[in-house]
Design goal:
Elements (H helix, E strand, L loop, with lengths): L1 H50 L17 E4 L4 E3 L9 H9 L5 E5 L2 E12 L2 E10 L1 H48 L18 H50 L4 H29 L8 E4 H15 L4 E5 L3 E4 L1 H17 L6 E7 L2 E5 L32 H11 L3 E7 L3 E7 L4
Helix pairs in contact: 1-3, 4-5, 7-8
Amino acid sequence: MFSTLKWKLTVIQTVLFSLVLGLGLLLTYNVTKQVHISRSVALLRQAVSAYLRNPMRNAPRSGLPAGIAIISSTGEVIFGTIDTQHESFEKFLSHVLSVRKPSYIKLGNDEYLVVKLSVQTFAGQSELFLLSPAGGMGDFLKLLSRMFLILWAIFSLASFLLGHYFVNRSLAPMKRITEELRNISASDLSRRVYDPGTEDEVSNLAKTINDMLNRLQLGFEMQNDFVNDVSHELRTPLTSIQGYAELIEKFSKNSEIVTESARTIRETVQQIIDLTENLLTLSRPVSKVELVRLDLRKFLHEEAEEFSRQFRDFTFEVEGEGEGCSDTRALRIVLKALVENAVKFSTNDKRIILRCGDGWISVKDFGIGIEDSEKKKIFQKFYKSDRSRSTPGYGLGLALADKLVRAIGGTIEVVSEVGKGSEFIVKLPKC
């Protein structure tokens, strides 16, 4: 891949450089050519002007540069020697008479610089065409064009070699990053790719890849922790089921032991079912959400009555009034998870307050509270603080509540003080 890219970049930069260099040399050649032509034309005009001060046909020939010829606008050669017998003379003559600005015209092997000149004669204004052998001028321009061609070839080759070197050097970090990425696998995500530290696109790419590897490593670690936590949480109830099953088998004739063991097995199985349902809910995306406007006080009153029947040792109070938008089923699950959490951590004061306002509801308890360092962790799956290890549950309720609240477009936050209780506030989406 890098070999192909390397040659593509090298060829592209060489072609672009050669084009720019070629255009520059061509422009320089044309400018130099025009300067030399202008200089030659000026000298030629000066010589002709000196010559025309004397009678044209009787003036000494030394008044004009050697080899010069003059042709009238009628095609008559009035001065100098031109091979009028040449097979191409007629075509040559027509080209001469069509000249509007200084240019070169060939007749056989001879090359002439042709200049149009208007002069005043006894008969009035007349047009003459001056022909001067190109001579050294032509040789100089040919030498100049060859020299420029050689310069173009040399510098194009140098551009190719330098381009190849710098492209190789520029792609070296990319090649190293690619090789290191090939050696990174899911079994070892602790490795990182080389960052040249140049703060350019390659360095930014390396930083982005390393950030991605950080996220992947964190995700794999969380997955491993999740599997370990599930295994740990299932081991206890399964061991309990096994133990009570052995009791039934051993004391099958003792109806009291069999009945108690069967009841315990049934309760333990129900705990496993609840754990499995919570895990499935957490693992599945929430795809269908139907937001409806709710009278939040009425909603909390109805739920409070259900909670009072379920948790007979607790008193539930409803405060505030307001309306909000939410998915009814999701909000009911969230509220139940928050109430179960409040019940679990309430000790002496068994009072729970359900509060509401426009666009929010909350669950307030007067239990053991939450330390500041744990407030961001309590919404993680299976997280249980040191002070809550002895309480029942699997640490999934708050994680489930957080997921459902985010699914309906809301947020959840906690206000807590150790020893005085906690309040979980759910802010609902706007209608």
